[in-house]
Design brief:
Keywords: Membrane, Transmembrane, Transmembrane helix
Helix content: 40-55%
Organism: Caenorhabditis brenneri (Nematode worm)
CATH class: Alpha Beta
Number of strands: 10
InterPro entries: Nucl-diP-sugar_transferase
CATH architecture: Alpha-Beta Complex
Number of helices: 18
Bound molecules: 2-acetamido-2-deoxy-beta-D-glucopyranose
Pfam families: Nucleotid_trans
Strand order of the largest sheet: 3-2-1-4-7-6-8
CATH superfamily: Spore Coat Polysaccharide Biosynthesis Protein SpsA, Chain A
Largest sheet: 7 strands, mixed
CATH topology: Spore Coat Polysaccharide Biosynthesis Protein SpsA, Chain A
Protein name: Nucleotide-diphospho-sugar transferase domain-containing protein
Number of domains: 1
């Protein structure tokens, strides 16, 4: 301070102007963010139709109702999830036995999580795997209700399986409870997170998989977990290279298929995911994307030619990925009906598996959902100057450059 007050009083320093500019821009950034709440991910089921406000008054009252609903959901998810804590699962006798079984397996197991609502799709999936050498011996199952568990055990006694019963918890929520379906959806994903955390703590490496995934080629023979020995986690992503609108969703995790190397770091990853899910209204996949921003977690995204989400069907089909997860976006159609429409049925009525249907799967994938492809031509995605400026700012100031925080808000319109 030798110069006293003589320095800044007479002339403006250039650096002062720069600093002021930075502060002003930083202050404005949150307002710019608000306009991007509308970015949505296609991978998720839309549970409710979006309501549009008419006036500012409408908008404000909707916002307050929305915030109240959101707080209620977060609170309820937190409350119901306490009825089956991480410790409850980790120390459950049957689950400990199941974990021991997995530990003894030669290769990391493929874990499918299911319940009565998707048992038909799961049985269909097993028929897909039956004709893929090496796949079925690695398949294990976690059920969220007893009845589906019994049916699977009866039909496939060799598949290691365990039940983590969520029915008693679901029963505590009345049918008419607001956003009940969404809360249960979150509860199921939270339970899956705790199961992953428990297995990681026991040092068990595994693949989490979904029954609505199609195996077009032998995913098993790719030995991906050996191909990336230094990575702790491998994830699938959403999007499609053919559509420019996905370029801003670069690296967004889909979360239907992922590999976890069981160690203390991945255990911590899932414990963080657990607490995050109880404090925010975000899908687990967007939280995983966010957490993966930390490089010590060693997350790796698998290319889409290996695993694609449903976004694959929006593009042309010259190349088929090794695996595709199929989401349904229509409410008036069951998943089974959707699979029927697309010729993805591998199981006869009498319970035997249809080898021909699996062999013809590549063709079925090429022809499936032509209506999605038709949209490709009409879809001229162009970014406004405003939007590009917004991203330029984000890039310069290194604020959520990859939209990982925007992704956290992707479910806000569902409730
Ligand atoms: C099951 O149904 C399929 C197709 O209808 C038929 O080809 C097959 O022989 C049947 N298998 C048994 C064991 O009945």
């Amino acid at each position: 301070m030798e110069n006293g007050g003589g320095y800044g009083s007479t002339r403006f320093s250039f650096s002062v102007i720069v600093v002021l500019f930075v502060f002003v821009v930083a202050a404005l950034l949150p307002f710019i963010f608000v306009s991007f709440f509308s970015m949505k991910k296609i991978c998720f089921r839309k549970l409710e139709i979006n309501r549009k406000p008419q006036t500012i008054g409408d908008f404000l009252s909707m916002l307050s109702v929305h915030l109240f609903r959101q707080r209620n959901i977060i609170q309820t998810v937190n409350e119901v999830s306490q009825k089956l804590s991480f410790e409850d699962i980790h120390n459950d006798y049957d689950f400990v036995q199941f974990s021991e079984q997995l530990k003894a397996m030669e290769k990391p197991p493929y874990i499918v999580f299911y319940d009565s609502s998707n048992l038909d799709i799961f049985l269909n999936h097993i028929c897909n795997l039956e004709f893929i050498p090496g796949a079925l011996p690695r398949l294990v199952a976690v059920s969220f209700d007893t009845s589906s568990h019994m049916i699977l055990q009866e039909k496939y006694p060799k598949i290691p399986s365990v039940v983590i019963d969520l029915d008693p918890i679901k029963d505590t929520l009345p049918e008419a409870y607001e956003n009940r379906r969404y809360i249960i959806y979150q509860l199921v994903l939270l339970t899956r997170t705790r199961i992953c955390a428990s297995l990681a703590l026991r040092g068990i490496s595994f693949w989490a998989m979904q029954q609505d995934s199609l195996w077009i080629e032998n995913f098993d023979s790719m030995q991906l977990e050996d191909r990336y020995p230094d990575e702790y986690m491998l994830f699938d992503t959403v999007g499609n290279e053919q559509l420019p609108e996905y370029s801003r969703m670069h690296g967004w995790i889909c979360g239907s298929t992922f590999f976890i190397r069981g160690n203390p770091t991945t255990h911590q990853f899932f414990m963080q995911l657990d607490s995050f899910m109880r404090m925010h209204q975000s899908p687990d996949s967007s939280i995983m994307t966010y957490l993966c921003g930390h490089r010590n977690y060693r997350c790796h995204r698998l290319p889409r030619w290996i695993i694609s989400s449903s976004d694959y069907f929006r593009g042309t089909r010259e190349n088929t990925p090794v695996m595709i997860q199929v989401d349904s976006d229509q409410k008036d159609e069951t998943k089974m009906e959707l699979f029927q429409r697309a010729n993805f049925i591998f199981r006869h009525e009498n319970g035997t598996c249809d080898r021909r249907a699996v062999h013809k799967l590549r063709d079925a994938v090429r022809l499936a959902f032509p209506e999605k492809l038709k949209l490709l031509g009409q879809n001229t995605y162009a970014e406004s100057i405003y939007k590009r400026l917004h991203y330029l700012y984000k890039h310069i100031f290194n604020v959520d450059r990859y939209n990982n925080k925007v992704f956290l808000t992707v479910h806000y319109t569902l409730i």
